[in-house]
Amino acid sequence: MKLATIPAALALVAVAVSLRVITTAEPETVETRHPVLILAPDDRSRCGETYGVLNLETVRGSAKRRGYWNQDRSIPAAWRPTKDDYRGWDTGHCAAAAWFGNQQLQDVTFTYSNAMPENLAMNRGIGAQIEALIREEAEAPGQQVYFAVTPLWIPEGGELRFRVVGPHALWVPTHKGWSILIEKDGKPVLARAWIVPNVAPPKGAKPDDYRRPVNDHEYWRGRDFFDFAWLDREQVERLEAVR
Ligand SMILES: [Ca+2]
To answer: Quick check: pTM over 0.85?
Structure first.
């Protein structure tokens, strides 16, 4: 599924799976060419991956953090992630709660389809710092920040090993990937990605230590993230190739 095709298919998908696709809670004020928040849980891994766009309007607001997570009832109960699957792990947001000032949108981020089991130190350290950097970009006037946040499974030495946890056999990602593409005045100006191992980071680690070309994130996820018809695609490809 190419992201560029999602807006056209949106109405249909929204009827079929009510919680997986969310456009915006305030369509009359938040104007974007892309859905503000899309939850796309992977039926095989039972972890979320999430896409959307941020700007001054989406981050603005006074939403309060929810104290609990919701199950995604569009997923069959037999393998639907619940609280029990996360014992011993942080429930790591794909799209960060703090990226959405609107209460309804922020509440949607507290859905297990927007989550992956994360190492506590990674989530609260490097992960939180990367989320803050992305929010800062969204706060810059005139910028649209397209994002893709996904769990990743990256092999080592020709072998892929990962944990499976909880009663619903949640696949624990080996890594987490964040990618953003920034559009300013209608032009793509910057692409950036971070790929972070899902383990406690070494002391003194900084987000810059984990910077990668967006192409690397796309390669390991097997998806072309920012292939939007309204942007100069050659320029997007050039930006995605640099670290
Ligand atoms: Ca791309």
So the answer is: yes
